[in-house]
Amino acid sequence: MLVALTALRVAEDDPLSRILESFNRYTGQFPYEKVYLHTDRVAYLPGETIWMKSYLFYGENHGADSTSGSVWIDLVSSNGRKILLDTRIRSKGGYGDGYLTLPDTLSTGRYTLRAYTSWMRNFSEEWYFNQVIEVVKPSAPPAPQLGTASTKTDVQFLPESGHWVVGLPGRMAFKAINSAGIGIDVAGYVLNARKDTVAGFASQHLGMGAFPLTPEAGQTYTAYVRMKDGDTYSAFPLPAPQNTGYILQVDNLTNKENIRVFVMHNLPVSGEATAAAGATSPGAAAGPATAQPMLSIVAQVNGAVVYAAKAPTNRPRFLVAIPRNKCPQGIVQITLFDEKGKPVSERLAYSDHNEVLKLTVKPTRTSVGVRQRVDLTVTATNAEGAPVAANLSLAVTDTRQQPAFRPNGRSLVSFLLLTSELAGYVEQPGYYFDQSKTDRLVKLDLLMMTQGWRRFTWEKILANTYPPTRFLVDTSLTLTGTVYQGTSRVPAPGTELLVMRSRKDSSRETGMVTADQEGRFFLHGMTLIDTNTVFIQASRGTSHNFNVVLDKLYSPQVRLVRPPLSPLAIDYEQLAELLKRQKAYLDIERQISLNNEIQLQTVTVKGKKADPYAQQRSMYGTPDNTLVVDDMMAAGQTSVFDLLRRIAGVQVTGGGPTPSVTVRNSAPMFMLDGMRSDIQAIANIPPQTVANIDVLKGAGASVLGASSVINVITKRGGAAKQDYSKMPAAPGVLIEKVVGYAPQRQFYAPRFDAATPDERVRPDYRATLFWAPTIRTDATGKATTSFFASDAKTTLRFVVEGATKTGQPGYVDGTMKVE
User: How far apart are CA 630 and CA 122, in angstroms?
Assistant: First the structure.
């Protein structure tokens, strides 16, 4: 008897109920995200810029509007041990774009570009996006054999669903690879301990294959393998079969309505079920379901359970039919649990609905001349041919300046629907989504039997032992910190903080925030672009009674990143054109920059001298009165109040550390370096550190909500060639520089129909001719764009990829001639 749980409702004391409850609790607490980067190309010279667009998806439904608002990107060294560069891309609605400029000093080698969100840092780095980036230094080309692999063969034999059990008809999958991890074609045979030939086999796709074999008790098995074009055999022992256990056999090819799962075991069964032992589908019940322990089977896709069923353990064989219409597109993880709810067997299958975006890219002409305009039309439709709105990115490159294009490579489609759910390198993932490959689903099923799965382990889920959540979902770049009492490490709960952020252009944002019961404060929603100076001042009571500490925004760490195995072994002789032309192009860039510098030295610029303390005056502009304090004036003074006595209209009376100060018969508002402060903080400022004292009256002061204002500007604040953030701050005041999102930068693409004088005479041999990170199709499913060919008579390659808001991915590439 097989009980299908279509509504997923079971008794509370049932093992399956506990399995589903634990699974739903885990996926509810730990939703996951996927990040993908589309880069303009894969090979660069030192000093060039990597242009990229980020796509961020919610893991369960692939919606392109995940909660996180930031994508973190690292360039990892060729040895995988050091982060050389890092940047942050702001993600809006699941999309973002940015760039990474490679240093001129970068050595030739294979580097790794990786991307992730703050939330993804709670999980294994294995699930970060990783892409190989090749860097070629013209002055130091690598040895010609770089990227080649030896012919040594390694063969892994993998029983279907994880186990090989005596007396049960099993299937043995295998995968043969060379030392670079690339699949190679092999053939061979299997001998038992009596030297009888019990099976023959040959790989079907990229070194993968499978063959049936029922293991016998007391036997050992050895496979003898040779490369298909060789005659030397190598011996590989097969895994030892278990005497008792469970296996799953999945038929994902012959039935259009269901994924059929054959469940078998050879554990002792009651005599009541013996007559039914040969049954391959659930027939009549072998006794009441409540009288028998039950096996459970669960199928999930993208972290959502799509099917669950149970059957009594006294059925040694039964069939489970998982409806295809219950399974969205993607990998189906099918797990069998014993009567105690322990996972005992597992198999992956792929649910294919052809739910991908159909993209086309067409130039108006099949070929153009050098420096002529190229007009492109991009079209997006669904599988039925109906137009759809999509957010796309486009890269146009010179094929003579890039490695030879390898078909069936990774794209947004194969990443989102396949490789992001599998551990390890998947060779030619695009093959499984090419509709022209009539055997693609057969070969995809082989991949499901041979590829690893590591996103979570059932044992941890069922034990409810979840990893701690150290990092929150960050909708922006959130700054956090703690307020302490004085110089102690005792938190100061409820402290009010004045926050001011200063940009490079001297503009500012101000606001107030209150520390929580643990003294922690959180600055959400700040638009941090490029380098920002953040001022934070405790404003409750006397500020010198507090110490403000800001957490580091994030310093990326790396354990050990090995470049993903990839057949991108560059033939550097073929890239001679790249090395020659790009070196000449970079030399021209440097010469133009040098010429501009020489010309600038002869230019006399007349204008108003810049105010070195403009940043500290940005809240009000020009003061009503200013006292410029020099060393002679400050010498011998004991406090700032002695300097205030020199300013007309400011009255200082009384003694002690904080005398009475009035302007126009009322107490002024005090500021320190443009931030609101109090008289106690001003009293702690040494007169020798003061540069200016500004006094505001009337309209200037009313803008700040006061009848009068005194702003004490210290020398650490704005003097030329001084770093304000590195100078000691006043007590209760924090001044720190924070690097935010990478600033926006426009890709340079000359328009030769309106060329500048420099562009008319300057040679143009760019490797990337055009980069458009945001192309949106309209209601008709179309979008148009244009660019100009360079001086190279070559072949251009277009790559367009992107997705709909609901997460339907698409990819297309094409070429055209420049003659």
Answer: 54
The answer to whether 88 touches 73, Cβ cutoff 8 Å, is yes
Contacts of 614 (CB under 8 A, 6+ apart): 506, 718
Pairing of strands 795-803, 809-818: antiparallel
Q: Which two tokens stand for residue 708?
A: 């009068």
Pair 355, 381: CB distance under 8 Å: no
Q: Is the pLDDT of residue 343 over 70?
A: yes
**For residue range 218-267, what is the model confidence (pLDDT) as tens digits?**
999 999 999 887 889 999 999 999 999 999 999 999 999 999 999 999 99
Judged by DSSP in three states, 345 sits in strand
- Inform me whether the pLDDT recorded for 681 exceeds 90: no
CA distance 98 to 474: 19
Count CA atoms within 13 Å of residue 105 on its CB side. Answer: 3
Distance CA(269)–CA(246), nearest Å, equals 13
**pLDDT at residue 285 tops 80:** no
Q: Which residues contact 364 (CB under 8 A, 6 or more apart)?
A: 374, 375, 376, 377
Helix (H) or strand (E) holding 21: helix 15-29
b/e map 55-87, b = 16+ CB within 10 Å = bbbbbbebbbebebbbbbbbbbbbeeeebebbb
How far, in Å, CA of 190 to CA of 58, rounded? 45
Q: How far is CA 578 from CA 50, 473, 567, 581, in A?
A: 16, 42, 20, 5
Which of residues 642 and 531 earns the better pLDDT score? 642
Given the DSSP bridges, would you call strands 208-213 and 170-177 parallel, antiparallel or unpaired? antiparallel
Cβ atoms 331, 448 nearer than 8 A: yes
CB distance 306 to 7 below 8 Å: no
Tell me how crowded residue 105 is: count the other CB atoms within 10 A of its CB: 8
Q: How far apart are CA 584 and CA 106, in angstroms?
A: 18
**Which stretch, 200-214, 588-602, 649-663, has highest mean pLDDT?**
200-214
> Which position has the token pair 């929603």?
525
Q: Which of 45-49, 120-124, 294-298, 551-555 has the highest mean pLDDT?
A: 294-298
Q: What is the 3-state secondary structure (H, E, C) of 700-741?
A: HHHCCCCCEEEEEEEHHHHCCCCCHHHCCCCCCEEEEEEECE
Give the per-residue pLDDT at 571: 58
Q: Is 345 within 8 Å of 164 (Cβ atoms)?
A: no
Q: Which of the residue ranges 483-487, 533-537, 567-571 has the most confident prediction, judged by mean pLDDT?
A: 483-487
Contact by Cβ (8 Å): 814, 776: no
* Spatial separation of the C-alpha atoms in residues 444 and 453, rounded to whole Å: 15
**What residues pair up with 224 in beta bridges, in sequence order?**
189, 235
What percent of the chain clears pLDDT 70, i.e. is strictly above it?
Answer: 84
Beta bridge partners of 546: 485
